[in-house]
Amino acid sequence: MSDDIAFEQISYSGQVVVVTGAASGIGRAAAELIATRGAKVICVDLNQSGADETVASILKVGGKAESAVLDISDQKKISDLVSSINNKDKRIDALINCAGYPGPTGKFVEDINWDDFQKVIAVNLFGAIWLTQAVLPIMKRQKYGRIVQVASIAGKEGNPKMAPYNTAKSGLIGFVKGVAKEIATDGITINALAPAVIATPINVNTAKETLDYMISKIPAGRLGEPSEVAEIIAFMGSKACSFTTGFTFDISGGRATY
Ligand SMILES: NC(=O)c1ccc[n+]([C@@H]2O[C@H](COP(=O)([O-])OP(=O)(O)OC[C@H]3O[C@@H](n4cnc5c(N)ncnc54)[C@H](O)[C@@H]3O)[C@@H](O)[C@H]2O)c1
Q1: pTM summary value
Q2: What is the pLDDT of residues 106-115, one digit of tens each?
Q3: Taking a C-beta distance cutoff of 8 angstroms, is the pair 153, 196 a contact?
């Protein structure tokens, strides 16, 4: 294979990529990396100023990006945003869904307030489902698409005292497995990613006992970096990821070897 053909597989030149959670952490790192590989990146987040900062950092190095404010637990607003991107840009090549939050930690399941439980499911699971439903008709029309759902090691193994998050992320892994088979002949792949603890602001409010437990489980003996996660996401969202679908990729410093 020539270098040009190999490069073409990981290039995002001419593509429009939607990255949620792009204001911070993994989403920001993924948006910036994918922009350097040629995509126009739509940086979506609840946090407008953070999304604008990501856009500014992409524009500063000559990339293409726009921001959009969205709460991914709002189905109607997801549908409106995806329609407006499609009307303007006429395509969506990849959806990289990094928006999420842990919700209650350090609490036994029976002590978790039901509103808090439902909110975690609404953002981390329903939001992911609604985003997928919104982009699939566009990707089917294009006969091309890549969907990356950032789940968590919590969805594969379960972390104690994080019941809502475990439930949402494991639901997301199951969602990806079945949908992948529905669209396997449409030129679209959908995969999940299960990071262990990554050094981002998401862990700021996590109970110390929960965080210590999660870090102690990582054989590499350190937290992952957002830039390391961005590399695997950039592969999963590219043309190169053409024969793997329904899978949950690992990025856990050796915690999960399956
Ligand atoms: N950092 C970790 O240790 C870790 C481990 C496993 C999985 N994850 C997952 O990775 C993803 C990214 O997390 P991160 O570590 O970069 O955290 P982060 O807090 O740095 O970034 C998450 C982003 O999602 C946004 N967000 C939260 N709720 C939203 C909503 N309802 N609508 C739109 N945007 C919303 C936040 O504003 C924030 O910018 C999350 O899905 C998280 O569950 C993180």
Answers
A1: 0.97
A2: 999 999 999 9
A3: yes
Q: Does the beta carbon of 147 lie inside 6 Å of ligand 1?
A: no
> Of all atoms in ligand 1, which is nearest to the CA of residue 102?
43
Tell me, what CATH number does 173's domain have? 3.40.50.720
Residue 26 in contact with ligand 1 by CB distance below 6 A? yes
Q: Which of 12, 101, 144, 165 is catalytic?
A: 165
- 143 in any annotated domain: yes
CA 57 to chain centroid = 20
- For the stretch 55-81, pLDDT in tens is 999 999 999 999 999 999 999 999 999
User: Which residues are registered as beta bridge partners of 147?
Assistant: 95, 190
Domains: count for the chain: 1
What single-letter amino acid sits at 142? Q
CA of 24 to the centre of ligand 1 (A): 7
The answer to whether residue 256 sits within a structural domain is: no
Cβ–ligand 1 distance for 227 under 6 Å, the answer: no
1 pLDDT above the threshold of 70: no
Whether 227 has a pLDDT exceeding 80, the answer reads yes
Question: Which domain covers residue 148, as residue numbers?
Answer: 3-250
